Amino acid sequence: MGTVAKALELLDLFSRARPALGLSEAARLAGLNKATCHRLLGELQARGFVEQAGAAREYRLGPAVLRLAALREAAVPLRAMAQPMLERLADETGETAHLSALEAGRLRMLAWAYPAEHVTRVMMADTDTLLFHATSSGLAVLAYLPEAARAAVLAEPLPRLTERTESDPDAVRARLVEVRSQGHAESAGSFEAEVHSLAVPLFDTEGAVTGALAVAAPVMRMTGALRGRIRDRLIAAAMELNDQGGGAVPPDLAALWRGAMKG
Amino acid sequence: MGTVAKALELLDLFSRARPALGLSEAARLAGLNKATCHRLLGELQARGFVEQAGAAREYRLGPAVLRLAALREAAVPLRAMAQPMLERLADETGETAHLSALEAGRLRMLAWAYPAEHVTRVMMADTDTLLFHATSSGLAVLAYLPEAARAAVLAEPLPRLTERTESDPDAVRARLVEVRSQGHAESAGSFEAEVHSLAVPLFDTEGAVTGALAVAAPVMRMTGALRGRIRDRLIAAAMELNDQGGGAVPPDLAALWRGAMKG
DNA sequence: TCCGAGTGGTTCAGTATATGAACCGATGGT
DNA sequence: ACCATCGGTTCATATACTGAACCACTCGGA
Prior knowledge:
Two copies of one chain form a homodimer.
Chain A: H1 3-11, E1 20-21, H2 23-30, H3 34-46, E2 50-53, E3 58-61, H4 64-75, H5 78-93, E4 96-103, E5 106-113, E6 129-130, H6 136-144, H7 147-155, H8 169-182, E7 185-188, E8 195-203, E9 209-218, H9 224-244, H10 251-262
Antiparallel strand pairs in A: 1-3, 2-3, 4-5, 4-9, 5-6, 7-8, 8-9
Helix pairs in contact in A: 1-3, 2-3, 5-9, 6-8, 9-10
Chain A binds a DNA duplex (30 and 30 nucleotides) through helix 3.
């Protein structure tokens, strides 16, 4: 593995649950020698990507990431556009709405909004990476990925997270055909046992999938009526988002969506 | 220089003015061999720090920086706290307010807010790095930096940006004594000829300077009354920000500020 | 139509650069 | 007093990085 990849992997160790970590801890988690880890962290620190805080000299993410994120938002304002839309989706459906983006072959949580309505709701803050085969967002993305990328994903082992998780690649492929014919993806209890969710894919200007928009509800609340409302709102939001953000929806999917909105 | 440093430097090539760049262009700007640059960008891409967009295969910042920025904000909510405060400052003073943070030995723009009031105002969007000797924010930070770091900054050449820029290290040191005795820094026309600004330093939980809060006005609008109002609002905002964010203001400075607020 | 000057991207020998075991001194618990 | 941590450093070893030269392609003249 390249040195740069190791350094960047170090940045991936941080999470909401673990906002700061010590040198030895980082080395252990990343599987690096302590000296190597120290040098890498040093280089990251020199550029402001991490900083050392407190008496324990723990490392945490630095201000450089904020600056870069602001630049990314200036170049590709997906997040800024999506946040109000997520709030609206959460409001209209009464369930948790979230946005994920394809990042280095993984599907990762980018933003989310909770409904005011219910006391119980699906929480998103602790979810980092969404598995392709076990989530509606993952299926939505996977269905519209180029075959090569799809094959790469399905070549990996597909862990069974719950007893309802589909772990056979061919069965997943069958689900993808379904997704493409419906224009949206659905998954019930395959990621978390009590969660039922619907998702639609998002595209960039070249028509490549970039992520997914989804709404997740507790299984026990997911009635037929709610399913329909979520699907409609989701498609409307995705059309708007793809439109505003210059996303090029594949013609057949666009046709499906238009049909769904009329019916 | 380490490989990682080179890769991170590559990320610094992006700016609002240059949101995307080609391979050759990046190599040229970073002073790297094209092959090396390609490999580094490849590693950054594999982790989602950059992505290739469009038919021209230009590179731009990727979604990974958004995720990391969200984590940084969760750990150190400086920006979230500061933004509303900046808006208020801009509103109360009628001038541009901005926040900068110390990052790898440089002082960089993090956030800003414009006043609704005036048609002419100081623009911040294109300013990236603030020079220590030529800006009020820089002086405010420099005054409270540990001597070693301060010496390092003053050992570098101090470019004269305007005819009012102080480029003699000793003269700058004299200004810093002034800053420390006043509790805020001021600079008129030393960064941009038509800009007059005031700034106060911000601190972390260990009492180390982390950045500055500043208000900048066109020189021709900066009357004595406005100066006084800006200074008061700035100090009030800094006290609040340091307080909320757990920043430990050095005792003598805290005393100065309290005195200024009473008088 | 051909040419030259740009692209983005790849190869591979040579060497600069990263690596990791062993080592500090400090701290904290038993 | 001991042991097990911690963050950080050293230096001989060898691995992973470098860069000149090379593709194939596109574009705008001449």
